[in-house]
Design brief:
Layout: E1 3-14, E2 28-38, E3 43-48, H1 55-70, H2 78-88, H3 96-116, H4 121-124, E4 132-139, H5 144-157, E5 162-166, H6 173-187, E6 192-196, H7 203-213, E7 220-222, H8 230-239, E8 244-245, H9 257-262, E9 267-268, H10 276-289, E10 293-294, H11 300-307, E11 316-318, E12 332-333, E13 336-337, H12 353-356
Parallel strand pairs: 4-5, 4-11, 5-6, 6-7, 7-8, 9-10
Antiparallel strand pairs: 1-2, 2-3, 4-13, 12-13
Helix pairs in contact: 1-2, 1-3, 2-3, 3-10, 5-6, 6-7, 7-8
């Protein structure tokens, strides 16, 4: 199965419900879609949704730096191709744009291999197609106090057993505490509550506010400080009863090594757009060896395959952002989601998107 072509498409698809994060304005889902074609006619598809721009730069990276190393290569071992691309971009990369571009290629290569072998990826990796726990995310701070609670209550009515709300950026410490307190009162003690800071505090703020939030029996406090402040993560974890989690803004396993060694961040949240399937599987394996669990960041349509094939899966995350993009969106019932049983990753973009929603960047 040799690679004969690599094609890219840039799209801008409106959100059905634009997220009100409080610090990013997002009206459209900017997509970079990659098709990798094989000499046997199989086409693997990967994609990126980088959130904060760089679309044409990522596309150029694929065509200038990655595609020349792919044409003619045997695609039967995506992990080996990952290593080849890693070495070819090592000087310019190791994080950032090159790894994100490589991730889209990697997703497409695994998709192609699953299609060629007529297996969903979770089966290709020796997993099981059982339903997986998923929480309702996107109770955004920009919705305000009442809006966050209203969205959480809607998730609970739909059968979710856990939700995630946001703090910081738009709120004072007293407002954050009141918002979390009122969310707990509204949902009761049976629903799990995660709280996302989106890197919005200093260490001192995280410890001060976090100690007050400890009273509300939270499942976790997420990304309390900037991702590269590892010492800060550890200090906060030492000071609080609530578990501290993070990882969505880290790149690959080596970037998480300090968390493996300390064991103070019990759940890591790697992003498939920052490592592809190969990178995500490596993080999961290394985290398992360190006694840590994995709760992948967003993109459940892709990440269900990994969660179904590893022993240390925690939660999956549902934003509800992408359902309108797929010909066969996945369904969530009573807070559970099952990986697709179609070959490859099993997800196909609606063909009309390519005509109706050209990139507007």
């Amino acid at each position: 199965m040799k690679i004969v072509d690599v094609r890219t498409h840039l799209l801008s698809v409106p959100f059905t419900d634009p997220p009100k994060t409080g610090f990013l304005t997002l009206e459209k889902i900017d997509l970079l879609i990659v098709e990798v074609e094989m000499d046997n006619g199989v086409i693997g598809v990967g994609h990126l949704h980088p959130l904060a721009g760089g679309m044409r730069t990522l596309e150029m990276c694929i065509h200038e730096m990655l595609k020349p190393a792919l044409i003619g290569e045997d695609a039967s071992d995506p992990a080996a191709i990952w290593q080849t691309l890693w070495m070819k971009t090592f000087i310019q990369g190791r994080m950032g744009l090159t790894v994100m571009a490589q991730s889209a290629i990697d997703i497409a290569l695994w998709d192609a291999l699953g299609k060629e072998r007529d297996q969903p990826l979770w089966a290709l990796w020796g997993g099981r197609g059982d339903a997986l726990a998923i929480y309702g995310s996107g109770c955004f701070r920009g919705l305000g106090h009442d809006g966050m609670i209203e969205k959480a209550e809607r998730y609970v009515r739909e059968g979710y057993k856990a939700i995630k709300m946001q703090v910081a950026h738009c709120f004072t410490e007293d407002e954050d505490v009141a918002n979390v307190r009122d969310m707990r009162e509204a949902l009761g003690n049976e629903i799990e509550i995660m709280v996302d800071v989106n890197q919005g505090w200093t260490v001192d703020q995280a410890i001060s506010c976090g100690r007050r939030l400890d009273a509300f029996n939270l499942t976790w406090l997420e990304e309390p400080v900037l991702a590269d402040n590892i010492d800060g993560y550890h200090a906060i974890a030492d000071a609080l009863k609530t578990p501290i989690v993070g990882g969505e803004n880290h790149f690959l396993s080596y970037d998480l090594d300090a968390f493996y060694k300390s064991g103070k961040v019990p759940i890591l949240q790697p992003d498939i757009m920052r490592g592809g399937y190969t990178g995500l599987l490596k993080v999961a394996n290394d985290a398992h060896s360190a006694g840590l669990k994995i709760a992948p960041h967003v993109f459940p349509e892709m990440s269900t395959h990994v969660a179904a094939a590893i022993p240390n899966a925690s939660w999956l995350e549902s934003m509800g952002w992408y359902d309108h993009l797929w010909t066969q969106p996945l369904t969530i019932t009573n807070g559970m989601i099952s990986p697709p049983d179609r070959p490859g990753h099993g997800m196909e973009f609606r063909p009309e998107l390519f005509v109706d929603h050209p990139y507007q960047g």
